[in-house]
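Collaborator request, handled under Task 6.
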Amino acid sequence: MSRTMPSILAQVPKQTSLSVVKLVRPLNLDEEKKKFYFDVKYNPQFRYADEVTRQDLEKFGKISDKYLPQALHILEAVKKKWEDEEKFLDEIEGPLLSREEVVEETKNYLLENGIQNLVQVRFSSQVASHASMDKNVLTFQLPISQRKHRIRGTLNHEVGTHFFRTMNDQTQPWHNDREKYDLLPFYETEEGLAVLHAHLPIEQPHMWYTALNYYSVWRGTHLSFSALNEDLKQFMKDRDRRWNMCLRVKRGIKDTSIPGAFSKDQVYFRGVMSMLDWLEKNEYDARPLYLGKIAAHDLPKAKSVSTAVQLLKFPAFLASEKHEEYKTAIERIRKINTL
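Structure tokens returned to the collaborator:
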């Protein structure tokens, strides 16, 4: 680790309460992974810190096949052009980065956005996501899965969207008191916007992973862990990436021989579809959505009660002088990823 980087590195925080995403994280992940790698017909038997209910598994909405045609359109288009996932990733997202390179890229991004003292970074092998943002801690998955041409998109997603919206939310009257203002769940707006922003820097922004997430969750409702792994071979040859995908789908379930899935990974694709429509109708200006952690539907209500409009902070890619660049990128994303 570079000696110039320690200020942004964080210790693994102690958890006092479990969010749903933390609740569905298996305690015996490494042990079950070894069993599965020894026998791919084995269905992991996961243990959790607390009981996971059906309501928890559906926290992010009911699982459906509404956008399955669009998702399959993306998956088949990528397969047709690149033949397999690895060729696609190598050409579009570039080579894998080292841990030191990820830290350096992150440091530069934080400096560019003027928040170098506000975000800390850590690395963990105990997470299912390539990267995730929890309050002010950005966690990257080990082994490193970030790529040269994708890292900025990842930072747009986790920091430029999640962190900035969280930071602004903390200045608003509804922060920690959402019920008083009758605010709707914001997951689709939050994640849809984040996914779009992740694809801004990519020249050929096929939403491969987002479409694959949507498809995999839907298939997970019909298949066991091992059967899902077999099904995903048509899209993913790398066994580690298939393991991670199956884990994301099946987390929260004890006996993964039983069909069922955690619904979170469908919210990204649903959100993308709704945000593409919203941006088109609102002159491609995403800045109003940075009032806080709000759903697009609640924007009029949020504007009427906001007391901190002058205090809002925005990521560099939403600077007013970059509006046309932003609009062009969003239109490119729409053209490539919709029927």
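The cover message to the collaborator said: "The chain is about 45% helix and 5% strand. The first helix runs from residue 20 to 23. Please let us know whether this matches your experimental observations."
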